[in-house]
Amino acid sequence: MEFAHKPVLFQETIQSLNIRHGGTYIDGTVGGGGHAQALLERLEGTGRLLAIDQDPDAIAAAGERLREWENVCFAQGNFSQMHKLARENGIEAADGILLDIGVSSHQLDAPERGFSYHQDAPLDMRMSQEGPTAADLVNNLTQRELADIIFRYGEDKSANRIAAGICMAREKAPVWTTAQLADIIKESVPAAVRRAEGHPARRTFQALRIAVNGELDRLREGLQAAFGLLNSKGRLAVITFHSLEDRIVKRQMASWCQGCTCPKDFPVCVCGQKPQGRLIYKKGVAPSQKEVEENPRARSARLRVFEREGT
C-alpha cells in the first residue's frame, strides 16, 4: 500500500528527541513511518518503539515499511488513548514521544478520503474511517452550529454567510461531495474573498475536518497522556500545522514549565509549585525557507519540544 507522506522538520524533530540506545519511544502518529524508521535506525536494534495511528491505512503501510525491525509494535487508535495502548503493549513509561499533528499528505491526496476540495469525492474526512462523516455534519447541523464550527475552527470571517449558503443548498438536495461543498462556499462568500489568494473553501474544510475528528480535544488529551508516560529527562516533540493546535501545545508546555505562582511580595513560597520540566526551544522551531520551497505544506509547521524534569 502506498502511503506517501513527507515529514516536515524531519532532522530537527529526530535530533530533538535525544534518542538513547535501549530507550523506549512512542510515535503517536506513525503515518507512513518516516519518523518511526529514523527512530529505529538510531536505536540500532535496541530498546522499543510503539507506533500508533488511528488510520488503518497508515498502520498497514507503516507495518510494511518497518517489517525488518523486531523492536517495533503497532497499535491502531488515537494518540489520546496512548496510555491505554502503551499498557496493552507492555510499556509503562517512555524516553521520548512524537506527535505529528494534523492531516497527512496521503489523506489529502487520496480523493476517496474526502479531505480536499481540489478533487470531487464523497465528503468524508474521517481519519479513523469510523463514525460520522463531514457530510453528516453538513447535512444535519443547524445553521448556527455550522457557523460556530466554521468560525471557531476555521477562523473564517465569512462563517455566517457560508453556513447560510450550505443550509439553503441542502434544502434543494443533500450535500454529499467535496465539489458540491466547495462550490457552495465559493458562491456564498463576498467577491473580494473569491478574488483573494487561496481557495475560499480552505478554512471551512479545515474546520469540518477538525470537528469530524475532534482534533483539538484529542490533542489536549494526548498531551496529558504523553506527559504522564514520560520518564525523567524524557522528551515530548510535537509538530503542529496551524495556530489553533500550536496555541494549545504552547500553553500546555508553558504550564508544565511554570514554577512558583506566589505574589512577588511574598517573602517565601507557599504554593509549593515547581517546574515539571523545561522547553528545548523557547519559541519553537519553524521550517527553513528551503524546506518550504521544497514542500509548501510545511509553511505553517511549528515544532515544540518539552523535557520532563530529571530526578
Label this structure with key terms.
single chain, 311 residues, seven-stranded mixed β-sheet, 7 strands, 44% helix, alpha/beta
Q: List the total number of helices.
A: 14
Tell me about the biggest sheet? Answer: 7 strands, mixed
The topology string of helices and strands comes to: HEHEHEHEHHHHHHHHEHEHE
Radius of gyration: 21 Å
Structural class: alpha/beta
Briefly say what this structure is.
The protein is of the alpha/beta class. The chain is built from 14 helices and seven strands.
What's the layout of helices and strands?
Elements lengths: L9 H7 L7 E4 L6 H10 L4 E6 L2 H10 L6 E5 L5 H7 L5 E7 L4 H5 L24 H7 L2 H12 L4 H14 L5 H11 L2 H5 L6 H12 L1 H15 E11 L2 H15 L19 E3 L9 H6 L7 E7 L3
Textual characterization of the structure:
This protein is 44% helix and 14% strand. It is built from 14 helices and seven strands. The chain has helices at residues 10-16, 34-43, 56-65, 82-88, 105-109, 134-140, 143-154, 159-172, 178-188, 191-195, 202-213, 215-229, 243-257, 289-294, and strands spanning 24-27, 48-53, 72-76, 94-100, 230-240, 277-279, 302-308. Strands 3-2-1-4-5-7-6 form a seven-stranded mixed β-sheet, with helices on both faces. The radius of gyration is 21 Å and the shape is globular. The mean pLDDT is 92.
